[in-house]
Amino acid sequence: MPRVTVGDIARAHGAALRERCVLSYAQLAVLRDLERCRTAALGGHLYVCDSCGHGVPMYNSCRNRHCPTCQGIEQRRWLARRSQTILPVPYFHGVFTLPAELRPLAAMHREQIFTLMFEAASKTVLMLSRDPKRLGGTPALTMVLHTWTRELTFHPHVHAIVSAGALSPEGKWLAARQDYLFPVKVMARLFRRLFREGLLQAVEKGALTIPASIENLVRRALFETKWHVYVKAPFDGAQHVFNYLGRYTHRVGLANSRIRSMDERGVTFTTKNGKTCTLEPVEFLRRFLLHVLPKGFHKIRHYGLCSSHHVAAGTSENIRQLLGVSEPQREPESDTPVVNAVDDASTPESLNECLLALTGSEIRRCPRCEHGRLLPTALDTQWPARREDSS
After folding, report:
1. Which helix H or strand E contains 191, and what residues bound it?
2. Residues 6+ apart with CB under 8 A from 279
3. What pLDDT is attached to residue 111?
């Protein structure tokens, strides 16, 4: 049975969603791209086997960053680019969560609140790392914004991977304890204070407004609510960092692999610990579109030794020399599946190599005879007629 994708659900129920819900321009654009992805609406090519004449139509992708079908290849290319900056040290995994009382405000002012989350979380890690009583140096830090739960509800939080060590001002590598980074209560209080200061400054400057209906909620969250920050045990080296990044960096909402079925009961998808959730199709699409990011917003950001300044200066190479490791670790094979992955005539050959690594199969190999090679032709070619003529 063919796997159901978010695009299939959008094509089947997108019209009903438009009738029942008020969508923003950005959400409408994403919905349109999901409906058109890998369909004749975007054009494509007919791939004909040079051995048996079998033809396979392949349509172009929408390449929207919110489309689960299109992100596997870009994810692998991004990882390849970052492989040169991953340090051969353990990494901690931290999560900075926005309190529930502030979610309505985040939904109204997405770009401003998400930016404040990045700024407060990154400053929290860098300030504590540079404290001489703690690490006393600058760590490598990469952060990824997520806005969803496993059930697709709105839940903004920032994932952070932090090197278990830092570079001192004197150029020495200061290793952290393998079971401890910073006290999470200290991190949570500092995160709240930095976020509160940034939010109040934005309100004072008129960059955002707090509606009177939620003013008490916001005030309670900023001054009374205990914020939650936790840090997991460290990753065991760069390979595990890649495994984490591969799962989290290029995903919005959920992966197609989590969708189990679409039938008269609704859309069923996996959540956690083997459980599933079933939603009415329009509600599923509404929740999915809750996580459309503001145009041009960067959901992956790098700080400290991962910042562009240190990358350009070759700091990672210097640290590898300090640690006695001359070459960066190779990128591990990703287990992230690519659904309906195709390419067009303008795509470089490296795409085929990406797909071979991701899927374990050669997409240009003929599925019928299994030894011929699929060659692109114009999609409107009279291929069926030519087959009849040749027979």
Report:
1. helix 184-205
2. 152, 266, 267, 287
3. 96
In this predicted model, which residue has the larger pLDDT, 234 or 144?
144
Residue 33 is inside which H or E element, if any? Answer: helix 25-36
Sign of CA dihedral 47, 63, 257, 335: positive
Q: How far apart are CA 146 and CA 71, in angstroms?
A: 15
Structure tokens at 212: 């009177």
Q: What is the mean pLDDT of residues 67-93?
A: 78
For residues 367 and 212, give the distance between their C-alpha atoms in angstroms, rounded to a whole number.
Answer: 62
CA distances from 170 to 131, 137, 175, 282, 322 (A): 15, 9, 14, 58, 12
What are the CA-CA distances from residue 329 to residues 77, 178, 222 (Å)?
16, 20, 42
Within 10 angstroms of residue 284's Cβ, the number of other Cβ atoms is 26
Return the sign of the alpha-carbon dihedral for residues 84, 87, 90, 95. Answer: negative
pTM as predicted: 0.84
Mean pLDDT of the chain: 84
Task: Kindly state the tokens that stand for 127.
Answer: 């300030």
If pLDDT is split at 50, 70 and 90, which confidence band does 375 have? Answer: confident
Q: What is the mean pLDDT of residues 122-129?
A: 98
